[in-house]
Write a structure and sequence with these properties.
Number of helices: 15
Strand content: 15-25%
Low-confidence stretches: 1-5, 34-44, 121-148, 209-221, 523-529
Helix content: 40-55%
Oligomer: single chain
Mean pLDDT: 75
Structural class: alpha+beta
Length: about 575
């Protein structure tokens, strides 16, 4: 089971925060009430009432950084609260000296949590006195520390407070004759001693983490070895900061020890925020996987992340190194390639559709154009060869057939020209009030197979030429692929005009309906074969209307055209 990269560190801070809350609650109760329940005369009846600011200081020390509060500002606030607790403990030194000293030591330890003192042996003490080096330094949580040459000031203070609390607890089992007057509680009540132990344990969990890369120098080593180790440390630190990859170093508890320059540039986070609230990291053992790192501006940047363990001499995990490589440009290139591939696919689909249309159009023209041309050629040849022998009525009949086939070819060429104009978007509608009854009568030309039911005063707002082509194609389509009688009626509907053309034929097959109003409707002898309904749809839409199909029971097909009604 994988452990989150900084889960253990957050758990330790959570435990320390809970300890701070418990200590603060105990201090608050102790400040409000005496041991016998009588309200106090002064603000602090016992020294452990100073644990209230001490517990709050511990809670502030481990609380996550948020808003405009930086890590250093938080440390200053915690130190001030801890010093206040130490000062309050001093004021009660005469009442319970043991408890006052323990609280004083714990408060000073919290205030000096990041303070380090250098270690010196007897041989180097004199050289230190005249070297001009500062006697102490404050630890920077973002920089590694050399534990071999310094120690934390808080450690002996915590040790002293813990020893006093433990002695007070063990005093409960000693001979009362050996204790001061008042019994074991005169030294320190058990509840107060336990609160002090809880405060010291929480402070230990809240301490900053030592450097993994700090060299360990024994007391017997010569100064030259220490200088060599220090040089190696400086070289390692310089190497870390000069790497092009973003690197974060963590201890075994997933506390951040150090980050390099590239990590700060990649995340855009302040130094304290990186160290105290690190971003989510991949689980240990992850190598070369895609990951996202949040930035300070709220965005996320894709990276190639690795999380490797650092073993010690015994093979146990001493810490971890997280390495992230910015792959934002690679992701952008992948997205651009994907979009280009999708565009190529769309282009290929359009080319395939255009090729299919060309093949369908060629097939249709080969069949539809060849028939009238062949008929015209045969009739013309007959007239030329037997003109003198043919009677006048036969000559008129042959000439009439030639004229009909010629008109058919002209209509087909006009439809093709209109089709190409519709494809290029070159068709525009000049809409005017058009009487529907007049247009339908002109198109039907008194054909007895066409039954018209339209009011004389019904007008539509449309292009007269477009509306004539629409009605003509609908009626011819009904007569060619349906069966008479063909009913043409129109009426007002929802503020518009509804034109209906209905035949008595077998209707349209289900497999044809999805492409009924397409360029070419395949299938011999079915309704909509050719270009008529495609032209109808585009002309109706160019005039702000719509066209749809409805089946008729028990048989028949109904095409409905909706147009805008002309104003009165």
């Amino acid at each position: 089971m994988h452990i989150a990269a900084h889960g253990v560190g957050r758990l330790s801070r959570l435990i320390a925060g809970c300890a701070g809350i418990a200590v603060a609650v105990h201090g608050f109760l102790d400040a409000r009430t005496l041991d016998d329940g009588v309200p106090p005369e002064g603000p602090l009846p016992t020294p452990t009432a100073a644990l209230l600011p001490a517990g709050i200081a511990l809670l502030v020390q481990v609380a996550p950084v948020s808003g405009g509060l930086s890590g250093r500002a938080r440390a200053v606030i915690a130190a001030l609260l801890a010093l206040a607790a130490a000062g309050l403990a001093v004021t009660r030194f005469g009442d319970q000296p043991a408890a006052a000293v323990a609280v004083l030591l714990a408060g000073l330890a919290l205030a000096c949590l990041d303070v380090r003192l250098p270690r010196y042996d007897g041989a180097s003490y004199e050289s230190f006195r005249f070297s001009g080096s500062p006697p102490l330094r404050f630890a920077d949580p973002l920089l590694p520390h050399d534990d071999s040459t310094s120690f934390r000031l808080a450690e002996p203070l915590l040790l002293g407070a813990a020893v006093i609390a433990l002695v007070a607890l063990f005093a409960q089992i000693l001979d009362p004759a050996l204790l001061p007057a008042g019994g074991p509680d005169a030294v320190m009540p058990p509840v107060q001693a336990f609160a002090l132990l809880l405060l010291t344990a929480g402070t230990i969990l809240a301490r900053p983490v030592s450097d993994l890369t700090a060299p360990v120098i024994g007391a017997g080593e010569k100064p030259a070895a220490a200088d060599e180790a220090r040089d190696r440390e400086d070289f390692s630190r310089t190497l870390l900061q000069s790497m092009n990859e973003a690197v974060m170093v963590l201890d075994a508890n997933y506390h951040v020890i150090d980050v390099n320059r590239r990590w700060r540039e990649l995340t855009g986070l302040p130094d304290d925020d990186v160290a105290r609230d690190p971003p989510p990291l991949p689980p240990p053992g992850t190598g070369g996987g895609d990951w996202t790192i949040p930035r300070a501006d709220g965005t996320a940047i894709p990276v190639l992340a690795t999380m490797a363990a650092i073993p010690d001499a015994a093979g146990a995990t001493r810490g971890y190194v997280a390495t992230c490589v910015d792959i934002a440009e690679r992701k952008h290139a992948e997205v651009a390639l994907s979009e280009h591939a999708a565009e190529l696919e769309r282009g290929n689909a359009q080319l395939a559709a255009a090729l299919a249309f060309k093949n369908d159009l060629t097939s249709m023209l080969t069949h539809d154009v060849a028939q009238p041309i062949s008929s015209i050629a045969s009739l013309a040849e007959l007239l030329c060869a037997d003109w003198a022998d043919l009677p006048d009525d036969i000559r008129l009949e042959l000439a009439t057939k030639i004229d009909k086939n010629t008109q058919r070819l002209v209509k087909m060429m006009n439809d093709l020209q209109l089709l190409f104009r519709l494809d290029t978007g070159a068709v525009t509608a000049r809409r005017v009030p058009v009487p529907l009854l007049e247009v339908v009568r002109t198109v039907s030309a008194g054909d007895p197979a066409v039954e018209i039911t339209i009011d004389e005063d019904l007008t539509a707002l449309a292009d007269r030429g477009h509306l004539t082509v629409v009605v003509e194609n609908l009626i011819k389509n009904a007569l060619a692929h349906g069966a008479p009688p063909v009913q043409v009626r129109a009426g007002r509907e929802d503020g518009g005009v509804l034109l209906v053309v209905q035949d008595s034929g077998p209707g349209i097959p289900e497999n044809v309906l999805p492409g009924l109003f397409g360029r070419i409707v395949k299938g011999a002898g079915i309704k909509g074969a050719g270009l008529g309904l495609f032209i109808v749809r585009h002309l109706v839409e160019a005039n702000g209307g719509s066209v749809r199909y409805e089946p008729v029971a028990p048989q028949g097909a109904r095409l409905l055209v909706t147009l805008e009604r002309a104003p009165a």
